[in-house]
Design goal:
- By secondary structure, the protein is α/β, with parallel strands linked by helices.
- It has 3 helices and 4 strands; from the N terminus they run E-H-E-H-E-H-E.
- The chain starts with 6 loop residues before the first strand and ends with a strand.
- 0% of the residues are buried.
- The model has no long low-confidence stretch (mean pLDDT 88).
């Protein structure tokens, strides 16, 4: 849902300005740099049960193309997880 004149923010790629124009909106992308201290704190919060990520689907690493296709073609509400075997 995007109101006319709103801002469409993507963390994956630059949003289509053509699609944004249909809603008289502005498209912007946002890319965060990884931060080891922040990631460690998030890990502690998850382990303590204070934060629970919502996992939409889990795929083995060998099915990365299938996972990527789902991200590109479906509305994914949670995280897509790739399992890496030891």
């Amino acid at each position: 849902v995007l109101k006319p004149g709103g801002t469409l923010v993507s963390t994956l790629s630059q949003p289509s300005q053509e699609k944004a124009n249909l809603r008289r909106a502005r498209g912007v992308s946002y890319l965060a740099e990884p931060n080891a201290a922040h990631l460690a704190e998030i890990g502690r919060l998850i382990e303590a049960g204070k934060v629970t990520p919502f996992v939409q689907a889990t795929y083995p690493l060998g099915e990365v193309a299938k996972a990527e296709e789902r991200l590109e073609n479906e509305h994914v509400r949670g995280k897509i997880v790739l399992e890496v075997s030891a």
